[in-house]
C-alpha cells in the first residue's frame, strides 16, 4: 500500500512522542495521589483539553462519522445532546465536585468520594461503585481497543488479531509509566491533533467534491432525506439520541479531570476552552460523514471499504485525499482519540482496584511506592481483559460505547449531580441510586423496552430512588457541615 511507509513513520514518531511524555511524567510521580490525580495540579488549558480528549474516544472519528454517512443529519441529534450535557456538567458539577472531593477526605476516586461524603463505614458504597466502574469501564476499554484495531487493520493491512495488540500497546506503555500526568499531558497534545484533523478534513473533502453547492446537490441526489433531521426518527428516537448528554454527569474519567484541577478559579476558563473545542470537533465530525456521502457517490470505485464498514469513512477520506505524510498525521488523530480515552479508562480502573480494593481492604498501611506499582500492575490487568473482550472482529465501536456510557450515566450521574447540590442526600439514597441506575440499564438494554436508550429511564429511576430513599432518613451533622463548608468555599472562589 503506497500510504503505508509514510503513515507508519508518522505513527511511530507520534507514539514515540507520547511514550516520551509518559517518561517525563514518571519523574513527577512520587505517590498515589500523583499517579491517580496528578497531585491536583492541572491548569485550565490542560483541564479543558484533557476533559475533552478523554471524552471523545474513537467514536468521534469512526462511530459518529459512520452514522452520519449512513443516515444523514438525523444522526446529529447525538452531537446536540452531547454539547448540552457537557455544558451543564461543566456548569453545575465541575467546580462543586472539585471542592467537595477536597472537603471529603481529599478523595482521589469517585468511590472514595462517595464513601467519605456519606460517611459509609461499611465499605458497601465503595465496593459497589468500584464494581460498577470495573464492569462498565472494561466494556468501554474494549471499545477503544476495537477502534485502534480497526485503524491499524485498514491502514497497514494487518490481521485484526495483530492490530488489536498494536493498537493497545502504546497506550498501555505511557499509562503504565506516567499515570495521570502522562495521560493529561498527552491528552492535551491529542486534543490539538484531533481538532486540526476535524477542521482540515471536511474543508478538503468539500473542495474535492466541487464546493458547497455541488456537494449539497450530490448529497440530495443520493437521498433527499439526508438533509432531514427527522428522517426515520420518532420522538423516542430523538430523545434517545439527545439522552447521550445525560451521560456526562457520571463518567469517572471526565469527572477525574474536574477533581484534578489546580483550583475552582480554573474551572470557568476551562469550561469556555473545552466547549469551544468540543463544538468545533463535533461540527467537523458531522461534516466529514455528511460530505463523505457526496465524495463516495462521485467515486463509487473507491467506496468498497466504506460500504463494507461505514465506520471507516474518515480513514478512507484521509488516505484518498491527502499526501501520505499528511494522511499519516490525520490518521494519528484517530489514534489520538483512541489513546486519550483508553488511557483515562485504564487509569480509572487501576485507581478503583488500587485505592478502593487493595489499599482499603488488603494493605491499609501500604507504602506510596507499593501503591503506585500496584496501580501500574492493575493497568496491565484491565488492559488484557479488555483486549480479550475486543477479540471479536464483528464488534462495532458505537455499540460498545453506548452501553458503557449509559451504565455510567445512570449509575453515577444522578448520585454525583445530586450529591453536589443537595445536602439532604443520604448514604442509603446514594446506594439506591447506583443500584437502581445500573440495574435499569442492564434490564432495559436486554429487553430493548420501547426502543428508548437505556440511559434515560436509568437516570430518571435512579434520581427518584435517591430522593425518596434519602427522605426516609437524614444526613448526619458531619455530612451537612462538610457540605456547607464546601459550598461556601465554592461560592467564594468560583
Automatic annotation (TrEMBL):
Function, in words: Catalyzes the sodium-dependent uptake of extracellular L-proline.
Keywords, alphabetical: Amino-acid transport, Cell inner membrane, Cell membrane, Ion transport, Membrane, Sodium, Sodium transport, Symport, Transmembrane, Transmembrane helix, Transport
CDD domains, sorted: SLC5sbd_PutP
Gene Ontology cellular-component annotations: plasma membrane
Recorded catalytic activity of this chain's protein: L-proline(in) + Na(+)(in) = L-proline(out) + Na(+)(out)
Gene Ontology BP annotations: proline transport
Location relative to the cell: Cell inner membrane; Cell membrane
Family that this chain belongs to: Belongs to the sodium:solute symporter (SSF) (TC 2.A.21) family.
One GO MF term: sodium ion binding
Protein name listed in UniProt: Sodium/proline symporter
Membrane topology: Multi-pass membrane protein
Listed transmembrane segments: 6-26, 76-94, 124-152, 164-183, 195-219, 234-256, 277-298, 325-350, 371-391, 403-422, 429-444, 450-469
Chain segments annotated as coiled-coil in the UniProt record: none
One Pfam family from the record: SSF
